Amino acid sequence: MRYFIEFSYQGKNYFGYQIQPKEISVQQELEKALSTLLRQNIKTTGAGRTDTGVHAKKMFAHFDFDGVLDDQLVYKLNSFLPQDIAVKKIFEVKEDFHARFDATFRTYEYYISLEKNPFTLDHSWQMWKRKLDVDKMNEACKILFEYNDFTSFAKLHTDNKTNNCKIYKAFWEQNGTELKFTISADRFLRNMVRAIVGTMVEIGNGKIKPEHLRTIIEEKNRNSAGTSAPAQGLFLVDVGYNFE
């Protein structure tokens, strides 16, 4: 039987979701808990792999298990897992349904604090020393929809067969001293969102003009784009599936 598990985590203490040699990961903690409670060696496949320090409000993974799941498994997992990983639900899916390959979209949010705020240090990019023009940043967002190849925002030396992504939405919104960037696409390249945010900030502070984003994308060179934004401001907030 194949099961999907929906969960969330705070990424501060982990070297990303995916298992890493000699480093602690969310996947490692999840598999350890499942294997202990189900008394089988359980391997999970996640909807994606978040980078070191990145958070997830809504993440999915699938695993296979030959047996009937305990009705109290979610409760037991949450009792067994560290405080910064929480399981919401577990449900059965078709035996060939895949957490990564059957995802139809992913949505990320990135948070910037426009004031010095000690309470959001682990969940936002503190930018109280700079002023950002949100209108120009949103003007640049519209340019993203003109392209599919985002090599300029991809981590170098990866095993991607293609750097093409279809972006469905991208926009900035300000609520008081909090600035939030929302971006949704069919897939994302490693480091892509943080590289886009870093470039958008350079547009917002006047270092480059919004229309220069076209040149950056068309050069297909990571060195043309801005520095990656810090990991702690990034959240995976949704993954879409057609379960029927």
TrEMBL record:
It catalyses: uridine(38/39/40) in tRNA = pseudouridine(38/39/40) in tRNA. The keyword DNA-binding does not apply. It holds the Pfam family PseudoU_synth_1. The keyword Coiled coil does not apply. The active site is at D51 (nucleophile). Its EC number is 5.4.99.12. Keywords: Isomerase, tRNA processing. One of its GO terms (molecular function) is tRNA pseudouridine(38-40) synthase activity. Substrate binds at Y108. InterPro entries: PsdUridine_synth_cat_dom_sf, PsdUridine_synth_TruA, PsdUridine_synth_TruA_a/b_dom, PsdUridine_synth_TruA_C, TruA/RsuA/RluB/E/F_N. Residues 8-102, 148-242 form the Pseudouridine synthase I TruA alpha/beta domain. PANTHER family: PSEUDOURIDYLATE SYNTHASE, TRNA PSEUDOURIDINE SYNTHASE-LIKE 1. NCBIfam families: hisT_truA. Belongs to the tRNA pseudouridine synthase TruA family. HAMAP family: TruA (MF_00171). Formation of pseudouridine at positions 38, 39 and 40 in the anticodon stem and loop of transfer RNAs. Homodimer. This is tRNA pseudouridine synthase A. The lineage of its organism: Bacteria, Pseudomonadati, Bacteroidota, Flavobacteriia, Flavobacteriales. The gene is truA.
